[in-house]
Amino acid sequence: MSLTDILSPSDIAAALRDCQAPDSFTPKKFFQISGMSKKSSSQLKEIFRILDNDQSGFIEEDELKYFLQRFECGARVLTSSETKTFLAAADHDGDGKIGAEGINVLIYRIRLLRMCCNDV
Q1: Binding residues for Ca(2+)
Q2: Domain-wise residue ranges, the chain
Q3: CB-based contacts of 86: which residues, under 8 Å, 6+ apart?
Q4: pTM for the complete prediction?
């Protein structure tokens, strides 16, 4: 299975275009534009499995900096600042890595913000 089996190729392309410039990536906006914020827990787990390059069950900081490249080979690497911000947002237990539940928690928070604040 590939990411385009779950997410629209045009949504992925739009999300990648939105964060082409260094330090322009935010997980919240990327998840919204790519359509990840609308996916079910089981779909998010599958996306996580695809993104977990070494299949360890976690996405560590070294893997996370290549996050955009998992969507498209030619995409840029996340900056150190973007990587650390992303890790802090999704590492719900403070162990320095993201488990599948960390992505689900982050998506849940994004959905709550949209409901509470009409945030787009």
Answers
A1: 52, 54, 56, 58, 63, 91, 93, 95, 97
A2: 3-116
A3: 25, 27, 64, 67, 78
A4: 0.83
